[in-house]
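This part of the workshop introduces the protein records we will be handling. An example says more than a description, so a record of this kind follows:
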Amino acid sequence: MGSVQQSTKKTITGKITDSKDEPVIGVNILEKGTANGTITDTDGNFSLNVSDNAVLIVSYIGYTTVEIKLGNQRTLNLVLKEDTETLDEVVVIGYGTVKKSDLTGSVSSVKSNVIMDLPTNNISQALQGRIPGVQIQQNSGAPGANMQIRIRGTNSISGDNEPLWIINGFPGDQSMINSSDIESVEVLKDASATAIYGSRGANGVIIVTTKQAKEGRVSIDYEGSYSVQTVRKKMELMDATEYANFYNLFWENTKGEKYFSPNDIASFGRGTDWQDLIFRSAPVQNYSLTVNGGNEKTQFSVGTSFYDQEGIIKNNDYQRIVLRANINHEINKKFSISYNSILSRTVQSLTDEENILLSALSATPTVGPYMEDGQYRLLNGIYPFSPDNLINPIAYFNEISKKQVGNKVMANIALTYKPIDDLSIKISGNVSNTDTRLDNYIGVEYPNSSGAAGVSTNNSLTINSDNIVTYHKTIDKDHSITATGAFTYEKYTRKSLGASGAGFLSDAASSYDLGSATIIHTPSSSYTDWTLLSWLGRFNYSYKGKYLATASFRTDGSSRYSKGNKWGYFPSGALAWRFSEEDFMKTLSFISNGKLRIGYGQTGSTAINPYYTLDMLFSGKVSFDDALYTYYAPGTRLSSDLKWETTSQTDIGLDIGFFGNRLRLTADYYLKNTRDLLNTVQLPASLGYTTTVKNIGKIRNRGFEFQMDADILNKDFKWSASANISFNRNKVVKLYEGQDVQGTTYNLIVANDYVNLLREGLPMSIFYGYQTDGFDEKGHFVYKDNHKDGSISEDDKTIIGDPNPDFIYGLTSTMSWKNFELSFFIQGSQGNDIYGFSMITQNYKTYLGYNALKEVFYNHWAPDHTKAKYPAVDNVISTKMADNFIYNGSYLRLKNIKLAYNLPTNKLGINWLKWGQVYISGQNLLTITKYPWWDPEVNSKGGGASLNQGIDYYSYPTAKGFTVGVKLSF
């Protein structure tokens, strides 16, 4: 009979420490040739069952990987050595990478653990306050809403000021990415770094690298969290009794008698709180799963995530599912191939937040949403003084739907050929496709409606091709050169289609049977395309790692510009000196690293309408001889000498580390000039055209940025902190013929005017209006006659505020003791003003029957109260766009606080679990501000437009929330 020999097992235990005898947490310990492994606990200890004569592979980021033959050992205590090459962090820059120590430009890096610390689906929100020189502002608190990002100020009047997002090497959409899929984010701020992106780099560049495939045993990472969000605060409005007494005063002042009887008022009580009817406690769920693994030939990383957020306003929800894959394969020693893809699907229920909030705050509290017969109550005409523009929020929630579904795909593949060791040729292609469909439906039960439906679809397709050659050579150990050359191509097309109808018999088909409508509206469609061709090159030189130089050049050909100006040229150069490597610095041992940087470069802007520089026609319909004809007429006339918007930037920076880099400081000064600004200019009607486009002026941004990172304590109790602060000053240097550029004119009934202005010598988008000078003898506003002509007119307007902050800042602190971690993150803005359109509407339209804040009831003008805040209660409109609606928008916010516990998996004997963490956290729990409305972080009317900034008109409130979550690694 044959015999079976069974290999014996043994248990190996030990402790892993560093050169300072400190335990190293999370070290990977793997039995070679198997998937059997574990990691060290918080004390550096481990325990693993292995075969006799096993070989252990011990590895950890930042330390040299070692292999140890155990022999008869059952105990292993090991001191890891720092890997200097690994510790010299590699930073992703345009079309390549560079060691952080060799950087010559201004580049900030954020790692995945920082981004994942905030439970959000929005990368921009996770980056807010983390990076000096980057202002990130939330225009709306709605689920899935975009953030506004400005890197070192505003550069354009009519063009987009958002940065360029690069995802895995290609321009992409950051909304596709889940935070758990991110490996690193680099922000390129100065022109010496962004010029390699030419005409797309004027607003800065944000480079996102998703998790990349790595060699090693298969590992699984899971994260799940559950949050509950609520509105941060409610407005203190008049209740029903106060409302009735207030409008009795109004009716008495205007009609000579009271409207409500004492019995009416007694029956009202506190009445209906309409805010309680629209707001809710909203759950948020976020789950992600990532699988990594591979051998020396093929590696993979795949992940999926699901995010589900209900809005704090009813009927406002956002869902997203993401699938991501990265596969690398080495075909042979010379050829390798890589593949990246991201697929996302979003389903979003939208709401008319502006009208919902306006109506809920303005509705009379003396009535509820339903009539006695169960029908929806109309909020118009309840009383003789009632408003005529309010909607019933409950009817809106129940009878109106607005749903948007989006499918996005981004896939790229690259072939790399290395004919010799120092040379690589990379040919890559990318396809990005987005399909969205928006369905609107108003039910037949909605008040005064017979049903209405609309459907719109959009498709956009981007095709990219990048062909990159990179040569790297080290000569005599002292000289290192890297040369990069590339040709890139990008083609974008967008198609849209829309149709609508009204008059439906029932809600059975919703928006899916437009043909059954009794009224079919004229459908619409559109088509847009543009092309960008680019040649680029970059040269990096390093001498002994002390003297560094970078030069780059890019030329772009864009279909957006007119003949003779289609090509733009964007050079840059930078120098750096690592003075800490000089011999004379050796005596200053407390300085562990020091580098001076200076750079200059030019970038451009293609962030304009693709047909902005073409002669445009507009179409219309005309009736003639009992028939309807389409006509075309001149609209915009092309100026023959249009040029590119060009941004030139100079940056001077200092990077310095103290005490073994435990304290690290970075400081930058920059001066950025944007010339040849494109904007629309009015033409005399006699020319046959109404407008033209011209290069009208110049904007300047200059500022300082500071960042400090410190490892304060590094023993049993560990404490690290990071802080940054940024100062930016912008100025309009030149405008077309010195003429002011006015912002949008807003019709608020009580005031119909513009409030933002561009003027030479002043900051961007300043607030411009009248100055109040108390009340007259009847309790109406008096305005200053600055022009001294005895009347109040446009000439009396002056500067009344500035939406641009004096500085922005962020502070992070992380503490840990044994298995516990506590961290908090604070960010804020100082010195910016807000124009409170919400306050105008809510508190100065009382003659229309609007409800208002309690303080209006208790602090309005009366003959015996002339030092009041609000005017007399009557039907006289005395309001203008003036300084009494300017509010201090400064705030300090506790953005996130988190308490975590790392599971002691080894002590618990859970060998199948490498690492685990449970945590609780709170978001936006504290906001210190003088702004009286919901939230100071607003820009509801401005959106992405550079001219209309700092305006709050019933912005969707920012929520506060509590989160519980778990992270597991197998």
